[in-house]
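Methods: holo model generation. Sequences were used as deposited, without trimming of termini or removal of tags, and paired with ligand SMILES retrieved from the corresponding compound records. Each pair was processed once, and we did not select among multiple samples. The sequence and flavin-adenine dinucleotide SMILES for this entry were:
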Amino acid sequence: MYEIHFDPIDEVIECGQDETILDAAFRQGYNLVHGCREGQCSGCKAFLLKGEVSLKRYSSFALSDVEEEQGYTLLCSAMPDSDVDVELLHFDPDDYKLRNPIQSAVARVSLVSKLTRNIYRLALDGVEPELSFVPGQYVDLIIPGTGDKRSFSIANLPGGELEFIIKHYPGGRFSGLLADGGLGIGDRVELLGPYGAFHLRESSRPIVMIAGGSGMAPMLSLLRQLRKEPSARPVRVFYGAREKQDLFDMEPIVDLVGDIDDCAFVPALSDHSGDGWDGAVGLVHEVAAAGLEAEGITEPDLYLCGPPPMVDAAIELFSDRYGVPDDRIYYDKFTTAADVAR
Ligand SMILES: Cc1cc2nc3c(=O)[nH]c(=O)nc-3n(C[C@H](O)[C@H](O)[C@H](O)COP(=O)(O)OP(=O)(O)OC[C@H]3O[C@@H](n4cnc5c(N)ncnc54)[C@H](O)[C@@H]3O)c2cc1C
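and the model returned the structure below.
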């Protein structure tokens, strides 16, 4: 076991040589900021102040060779070869401890329903042991009959069933089970969690949510939380899809948003050709930027979720053009095996 010292929070954990620093931190009750946990998204990038690590497979997009030479590393890939001092680049000083333990659980499928041509709702009940989580977090579902897992954001609130919104990818090993009936009512599913640092932060600034496709899943959880625990903050929700037929659950979402004070919902289509759409058109982050500018909302807290290119484009736009600081941008990128392969 090696000692890992985290700066600037001045905490120390132990980490085995064949364990990643991120996993060791989870095991010891720390919820360090992270994304895909597969070396693809750079969410857990940190700086090595002292010591040596070996890196598991990662993408040079998440960590370039130059960055690695300079001393940057990815905590989800780094396994120590000595005692190590790490500087955390992204951390929330009030929120780096796990609020709920990460545990293994089992559950039964209680619902699989097709919402659009490629989006499904999956619900699990009888979760044993019961899972406590913070709205916005995700769990890993084990692909039945394998040890492999996929991450899915929980779309509802804690207590009872777990609801997921899942996009079907052609050839997708988990999502394919929803599309081809491989997972049905009563089937047993193993899960691990909760994970993630995507949850509402306290502040008085407007809350702006930008989601692409199934990226609406954790937003639904946050919106349900805001309905249950009203706040005085304006809430703006931008939801991007390709075509009108790709928007799911429009009526329930409009109802949910209608129950929250000063909350507006803007669906935006990137391709509206020929479907009689009279709503917003364009890439969802650009529609959001224009909408916020028109309203004079200049200092939002941003919550982003969806495909990595959408999240990256939104971060770039809002930080470069609008100067929103990094520590007011919270996101989960829905990376897939295809991203990992790339
Ligand atoms: C924190 C987090 C939260 C997430 N939450 C959600 C959520 O709420 N909803 C949601 O829909 N998704 C979510 N995701 C994405 C999800 O975890 C899966 O990646 C996604 O559902 C695809 O899994 P799959 O098993 O269906 O497909 P996979 O088997 O992983 O395949 C995905 C696609 O990649 C292709 N592919 C596979 N291997 C290769 C390869 N070697 N080369 C090229 N292409 C390949 C497949 O053909 C398929 O089209 C989340 C991801 C993260 C990291």
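The first strand starts at residue 2 and ends at 7.
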